[in-house]
C-alpha cells in the first residue's frame, strides 16, 4: 500500500494530512487529488483575508462617517 492510498482512505476531510509536497504521485490527476487539501486551505485563508479587508474599508468609510455626521448634527442643534 503506497502513501497515496493511505491518504485517500482518510477522505478529503478525514484526519491528519501528510503534506502534499512530500508525496510523489505518478500521474497528474493523482497529484491534484493529493494537493487538494493544501489548495483548499490556501483558498479559504485568502478569501477570509479578502473579506476582512473589504469589511474594514466599509466600516471605516460608511459606519464611522455616519457616526460623525450624526455627531455634527447633534452639536449644531445645541
User: What string gives the helices and strands in order?
Assistant: HH
Structural class, from helix and strand content?
A: mainly alpha
Oligomer: single chain
What is the helix fraction of residues, given as a range?
over 70%
Write down the domain tally: 1
N-end to C-end Cα span: 80 Å
Number of helices: 2
Q: Profile the largest sheet.
A: none
**Shape assignment:** rod-shaped
**Beta fraction:** under 5%
State the total count of DSSP E strands.
0
Unreliable stretches, pLDDT < 50, 5 or more residues?
A: none
Radius of gyration: 24 Å
| Average pLDDT score | 68
Structure in words:
The protein has 78 residues and is mostly helical. The chain has one domain (3-77). The chain is 73% helix and 0% strand. The chain has two helices and no strands. The protein has helices spanning 3-9, 28-77. It is rod-shaped and about 75 Å long. The N and C termini lie far apart (80 Å). The mean pLDDT is 68.
Short recap of the structure:
By secondary structure, this protein is mostly helical.
Features:
78 residues, mainly alpha, 2 helices
Compile the SSE list and pairings:
Layout: H1 3-9, H2 28-77
Amino acid at each position: 500500500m503506497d502513501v497515496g492510498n493511505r491518504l485517500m482512505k482518510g477522505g478529503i476531510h478525514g484526519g491528519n494530512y501528510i503534506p502534499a509536497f512530500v508525496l510523489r504521485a505518478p500521474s497528474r490527476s493523482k497529484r491534484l487529488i493529493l494537493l487538494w487539501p493544501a489548495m483548499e486551505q490556501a483558498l479559504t485563508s485568502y478569501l477570509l483575508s479578502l473579506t476582512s479587508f473589504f469589511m474594514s474599508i466599509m466600516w471605516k468609510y460608511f459606519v464611522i462617517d455616519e457616526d460623525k455626521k450624526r455627531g455634527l448634527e447633534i452639536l449644531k442643534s445645541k
